[in-house]
Amino acid sequence: MTADVHVKAVEHRFNSFTALHRVDLQIAAGEFIVLLGPSGCGKTTLLSIIGGFLTPSEGQVLIGGRDMTHVAPKDRPTTTMFQDYALFPHMSLRDNVAFGLRMRGMAKAARNAKALEMLEMVGLADKAARRPHELSGGQRQRVALARALAVEPDVLLLDEPLGALDLKLRRQMQEELKAIQRRVGTTFVHVTHDQEEA
Questions:
Q1: Which residues form the ABC transporter domain (predicted)?
Q2: SS3 at position 44
C-alpha cells in the first residue's frame, strides 16, 4: 500500500520560536524523498507532524487525500522508524517484527508468518529466534525496518535511521533501503543531515 502526502502551509511554534514557517510539500505515492538540512532546521519537526507526534500550529497534513492534521499516530497510515530503532531487548526478532501486528489484533499464526516474510525480505529469517543484542548495528537496523513495514503502512517515516552506523555500513544500508522501497512501493520520507546519505 502507498499514499501521497500533502503538507499545506504548515507552521509550528515552540512558544515564541518558529520551527516551521509556511511549509508546503507534495510527495507522490510511492516516492522516496529525503529531507536534508542541518541540525535544528525543522526536518524532524516536520516528520513528527506528518507522523502525528506533533500537531502543527497552523496548516494541514493530508495523507492519501484525507486530512490527518489532528489524527493520532496510531490511527494514521504511517509508521516511524527512529534512529535508535526502539527494539524490545527481551523479545526475539520474530516477536519484535510481529509486535505491531499483535497490537492490531492479528492472530498469532498469521503475524508470525508475516514477521518471517519481513525478516526474509531483509535477509534475517535465519536469525528469527535471536534477540537484538546478538546482532550487529546494521542487522538491528534491518529488523527495525522489517517491523516498520510489517504493518503495511502507506507512508514510512525514517528519522535519521542510518546515523548510528559506520560509513561502510551506512552506504550498504542506503542501497538496501532503496531496493526495499522499490520492492514494496511504500512512500518513504527520510530525514537526514548527511549530504552523502541524501
A1: 5-198
A2: helix
